[in-house]
Amino acid sequence: MSAVEQVAPGTPAPPAAPVLRAEGLRRTFGTFVAVDDVSIELRPGRVTALIGPNGAGKSTVINLLAGTLIPTAGQVRIADVRVEGLRAEEVALRGLARTFQTPKLYEGMTVLDMVMLARDRFGRASFLEIALRTPRTRRDRRASHAAAMAHLERVGLAHQADRLATSLPVGSQRLVDVARALASEPDVLLLDEPAAGLDHTETHDLTALIREIAAEGLAVLLVEHDMRMVMSIADDVVVLDRGRLLAAGTPKEVAADPAVIEAYLGTVAA
Ligand SMILES: Nc1ncnc2c1ncn2[C@@H]1O[C@H](COP(=O)(O)OP(=O)(O)OP(=O)(O)O)[C@@H](O)[C@H]1O
Ligand SMILES: [Mg+2]
After folding, report:
1. Does 3.40.50.300 match the CATH number of domain 15-95+187-196+219-270?
2. Among 209, 184, 190, which Cα is nearest to 98's?
3. What is the pLDDT of residues 216-237, one digit of tens each?
């Protein structure tokens, strides 16, 4: 046997190292423990579904990973750099983008404006140059406009670019939020129930888009109640129940886990 291990032909490549690693996350609100000792790893090219009953702590976990909430205990690393305790804007600069269960769209802004906002950090013009509307500002703006339109195209909303974002149905508002998140060109994407309020065709298109995004190398965390979508899209599934990790594994392993069936799938099927 040689010292170098032989890899049999056809053996799948080992999964890439995690880009986001959270360990022992805990978050309390007063005496209430919303998230208790949760560890999660997100790898490039993989979709991890985070599921669990209402109130299980899924959105709180997203908020803890994204810097929207500070953990009471535990650590979050992006590319081996500790980020817990940083503000959400700083975590975003380290390559994390997230969508909101209730999209935060600004009154008076068009769909295109909302997505272009996310492109601001790519601008090279200084504040003074922006105030003076120099050629560089105009170039930045053209590049930002083109990129934002391309992301709207991906979520199927390019034809709504000039509408007021808040005038869209809530399902479409979630898709604007997905386009906004993608426009920041993240390495890690956290999606909080992006398919809620979408019809069958829209859900189907979004599922295909999420697969495509992962295939491009992003690490995706998907909070989703639609188990058909979860089963068809997830490489890994993490189940939360009352703030604690109940199970983790492949979709098949998790679906066959008696504790999961009792706590979650059973209630969905009922
Ligand atoms: N800011 C807060 N203050 C007090 N309690 C909170 C706060 N945020 C969340 N909680 C509580 O923490 C628990 C977990 O909430 P969370 O929103 O994370 O659940 P979830 O799994 O996302 O639920 P859903 O499926 O309904 O979106 C709930 O009991 C909720 O009421
Ligand atoms: Mg939630």
Report:
1. yes
2. 190
3. 999 999 999 888 899 999 999 9
